[in-house]
Amino acid sequence: MAKVSLLLFSLFIIVASAIINGSEAVEKVGIYELKKGDLSVKFTNWGATIVSVFLPDKYGKMGDIVLGYDSVNDYKNDTSYIGSVVGRVANRIGGAQFTLNGAHYKLIPNEGKNMLHGGPVGFSDVVWKVNKYKKDGYAPSIVFAYDSYDGEEGFPGALRVTVTYTLYPGNRLTVRMKAKALNKATPVNLAQHTYWNLGNHNSGDILSEQVQIFASHYTPVDSQLIPTGKFATVKGTPYDFLKPHTVGSRINKLENGYDINYVIDGADGKLKKAAVVKDKKSGRVMELFTNQAGVQFYTANFLKDVRGKGGYVYESHGALCLETQAFPDSVNHPNFPSVIVYPGKEYKHVMVFKFSFSS
């Protein structure tokens, strides 16, 4: 009887969340799977989240290479944005405020006095509608949609958002994020926050994984991880991944680990290679391409005693994130590329993950 009551309560919470957060209709929260060749990816419409990515290693043994949970309810209680789409504005907004077209907007802070990843109830904590779900064919795909209401978390204007995940031959996962401002200009900066561990989600830390980031500059931050507005060269710093280095080779020179935005070289709105990750033991290789100007490199510095899939406990540096994005706190730095989307214009963000193997 207690289990039945708990289930009914959970369903009530899901329905209530959908209503409170502006969904047009009550959506059932479920798990959806796409398969193509050797690649299998599962999703949930809670936060348009990537739940698992199964891929063989160089020996042909299958493994799940992203952190996550066994239950959808665990994602509802997650505080680390594991696998989810974050927004309306990803990363940090200093002082949880900005001015646009002469109007001052006060947002809802959720990291001290600042806003992180869209606020206390960002896009990672709402129910998305499943617009399309195509399991078969040349390019299996799923489309999640969310209508963000005017004033949600303090942001101006209604916003219609879609996220499309598609599998292509050659072990490629493409993520397309689009957003339309319906009635007011508003900032938009979406990011996909998957925690990757190419050795397998339960293989320990990622300090031995080799990373290359195609960026000669980064955006320095203050003690609260808010950009100063300046640009700095990676040369001579622990942030230099222009040539491949293991994550752990210089991480001890940083206070907690990597959590910094890189300025992708040659970014011009077209698809560019942003990063490559290699895991020597498994042989897995992940190449990341994007049309965005920045990529946040994060080494899961603040994971601690997080019980994940199969009861495995995730700890600090148990994964890495490569979140392609516009620059953090762009709304407060006129010298950064603008993230403002005006009615009649469309925000488009593309990521391509290409998986392969090396000896």
Automatic annotation (TrEMBL):
Q: Write out the pathway annotation from the protein's UniProt entry.
A: Carbohydrate metabolism; hexose metabolism
GO BP field: galactose catabolic process via UDP-galactose, Leloir pathway; glucose metabolic process
- E.C. number: 5.1.3.3
Q: Which family does it belong to?
A: Belongs to the aldose epimerase family.
Which catalytic reaction applies to this protein? alpha-D-glucose = beta-D-glucose
Signal sequence annotation: 1-18
Active site positions, chain numbering = H193, E323
Q: Which major enzyme category is it?
A: isomerase
Gene3D superfamilies referenced in this protein's UniProt entry, alphabetically: 2.70.98.10
Q: What is the lineage of its organism?
A: Eukaryota, Viridiplantae, Streptophyta, Embryophyta, Tracheophyta
Q: Which PANTHER family match?
A: ALDOSE 1-EPIMERASE, ALDOSE-1-EPIMERASE
The protein's name in its UniProt record = Aldose 1-epimerase
Q: Which residues bind beta-D-galactose?
A: N91, R92, H193, T194, Y195, D259
Q: Which UniProt keywords apply?
A: Carbohydrate metabolism, Isomerase, Signal
MF terms from GO for this chain are:
aldose 1-epimerase activity; carbohydrate binding
